[in-house]
Amino acid sequence: MKGSQLGEFEEIILLLIAVMQEDAYGLAIQERFQEQTGRSAAIGAVHSALNRLEEKGFVESQLAEATAERGGRRKRIFSMTLAGKNALQVSKDLRNNLWDQIPDYGFEGLKAVLLWR
Amino acid sequence: MNSHKTTLPERLILWLCKPRFAEEILGDLEEYRFRLNERNSKFKTLKYWYQPVLFIRLYALKSPFKRSNTQSMLNMNLKIAVRSLKREKFYSFINIFGLALGITTCLFIGMFIKDEMSYDQHWKNSDRIYRAAAHLKFMGNQFDMAVSPAPMWEAFEKDFPEIEEAARMRSLDNIILELDNKRMVKVASFAHADQEAFNIFQFTTLAGTLDLSEPNTVVVSESTAKQLYGVNESLDKTIKFYDQTYVIKGVYKDIPENSHFHYAMLGSMANWANSTNTEWGSNNFRTYFLLHEGVDYQVLYEKFKTVYPKYFGPMLAEHSDTNWEQFLESGSYVDYELQPLESIHLHSDLSYEIEPNGSFQYIILFGAAGLFVLIIACINFMNISTARSSTRAKEVGMRKVLGSRKSFLVNQFMIESLLNAIVAALIATIAVYLLLPFFNQLTGKSLSNPYFGDLFLFPWAIGGTIIVGILAGIYPAFFLSSFKPLKVLKGELRLGVKSGWMRNTLVVVQFSASIILIFGAVVIGSQLKYIQSKSLGFSKDQVLILRNTYLMGDKVEAFKKEVKNQPSVINATTTSFLPTGNSRSDSPLLPKESTTTEEMVSLQIWGVDEDYIPTLDINLIDGRNFDENLATDSNAVILNQAALDKFGFENPVGQQLKTINGFQVWGMKEFKVIGVMDNFHFDSFKSNIDPMVLINVNSTGNIAIRYDAQQTTDLIAHLETLWSEFNANVPFEYTFMDQEFEAKYDSEQKLGTLFTIFSGLAIFIACLGLFGLAAFTTDQRKKELGIRKVLGASLPQLMVKQLSGYTKLLLVAVTLSLPIGIYLMSGWLDNFAYRTGINFLMVVVPIMLVLFLAWFTVSIISYKAAVQNPVKNLKYE
Question: Which domains are seen in chain A, by residue range?
Answer without folding.
Answer: 8-116 (1.10.10.10)
